[in-house]
């Protein structure tokens, strides 16, 4: 069992309080399922800061048999590209990994490694949103990525697309990422808009070029790129922004913010 590492920190640790917190995140957001969604970009900060942006994406997600969640290895432990097979627990209950999907992955560069996931929040914080909406009637595949490398992102994306095409189930690929870190609000928005434009075009080469060109400190560059590679191979045509905000919108301090972008890929 992979027990929650950041319950009580990034989100409420009590079931009732967490459900109330999630209801607050969805406040004012209408539920509009889009069956055409293949992928998404969702932030992974504390719910106080990015929960509304995350909810803007989740409100549009259709039910799926499997959600593949591509997260970031902030701690630098374990395999650089690691999938977990443990059952994961949150205050809302347990979610099982789809072992058949994991077993079907080509494993060219994706290792089964629980260590990389033990303390990592970027995947964990997505699960309560899915549990809240879908009442645990789904399985998921958590893949933690600890490097920035375009070729590796392409291999991950291709492996995911090939596996999804082979298993014949409804799968949505979620890239967990925040955008610019600790810049003044105006600069963060300019930088993030620049790279999000490439995501909207599903242009991976332009995405990497713009990240390096402007030194954009998005933490999930490879998860986003891998999702784009997979989604394009599965027929996606574009990305659409559901909401963008910064931490400054919540705390009022514009001098040093983190950017959060919600994007669906169809």
Summarize this structure as a short list of keywords or feature phrases:
two-stranded antiparallel ribbon, nine-stranded mixed beta sheet, Protocatechuate 4,5-dioxygenase, Chain B, 266 residues, 37% helix, alpha/beta, 11 strands
Short description:
With about 270 residues, this protein is an alpha/beta fold. Helix content is about 35%, strand content about 20%.
Protein described:
The strands form 2 sheets. Strands 1, 2, 3, 6, 7, 8, 9, 10 and 11 form a 9-stranded mixed sheet that branches. This protein has a single domain, classed as 3-Layer(aba) Sandwich (Protocatechuate 4,5-dioxygenase, Chain B). With 266 residues, the chain is an alpha/beta fold.
Output the radius of gyration.
17 Å
CATH fold descriptor? Protocatechuate 4,5-dioxygenase, Chain B
* CATH architecture field: 3-Layer(aba) Sandwich
The CATH first-level class comes to Alpha Beta
The CATH H-level superfamily is LigB-like
So how many helices?
A: 9
| Count of distinct strands | 11
Question: How would you classify the helix and strand content by structural class?
Answer: alpha/beta
Write the SSE topology.
Layout: H1 15-25, E1 39-42, H2 47-58, E2 66-72, E3 81-83, E4 88-90, E5 93-95, H3 99-104, E6 111-112, H4 127-134, E7 139-145, H5 150-167, E8 171-176, E9 181-183, H6 185-200, H7 204-213, H8 221-233, E10 239-246, H9 248-251, E11 257-265
Parallel strand pairs: 1-8, 2-7, 2-8, 3-6
Antiparallel strand pairs: 1-11, 3-7, 4-5, 9-11, 10-11
Helix pairs in contact: 1-2, 5-8, 6-7, 7-8
């Amino acid at each position: 069992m992979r027990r929650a590492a950041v319950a009580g920190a990034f989100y409420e640790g009590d079931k009732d309080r967490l459900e109330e917190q999630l209801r607050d995140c969805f406040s004012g957001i209408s539920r509009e399922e889009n069956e055409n969604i293949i992928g998404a970009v969702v932030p992974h900060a504390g719910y106080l800061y990015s929960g509304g942006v995350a909810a803007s994406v989740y409100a549009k997600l259709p039910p799926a048999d499997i959600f593949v969640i591509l997260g970031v290895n902030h701690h630098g432990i374990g395999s650089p590209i690691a999938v977990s097979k443990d059952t994961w627990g949150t205050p809302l209950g347990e979610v099982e990994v789809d072992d058949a999907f994991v077993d079907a992955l080509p494993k060219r560069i994706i290792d089964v490694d629980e260590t990389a996931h033990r303390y990592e929040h970027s995947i964990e914080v997505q699960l309560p949103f899915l549990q809240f909406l879908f009442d645990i009637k789904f399985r998921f595949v958590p893949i933690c990525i600890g490097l920035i490398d375009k070729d590796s992102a392409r291999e991950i994306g291709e492996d995911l697309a090939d596996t999804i095409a082979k298993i014949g189930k409804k799968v949505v690929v979620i890239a967990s990422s925040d955008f610019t870190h600790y810049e003044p609000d105006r600069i963060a928005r300019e930088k993030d808009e620049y790279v999000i434009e490439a995501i909207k075009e599903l242009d991976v080469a332009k995405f990497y070029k713009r990240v390096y060109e402007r030194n954009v400190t998005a933490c999930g560059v490879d998860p986003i790129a891998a999702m784009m590679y997979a989604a394009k191979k599965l027929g996606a045509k574009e990305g659409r922004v559901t909401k963008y905000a910064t931490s400054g919108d919540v705390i009022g301090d514009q001098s040093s913010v983190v950017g959060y972008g919600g994007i669906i890929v169809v």
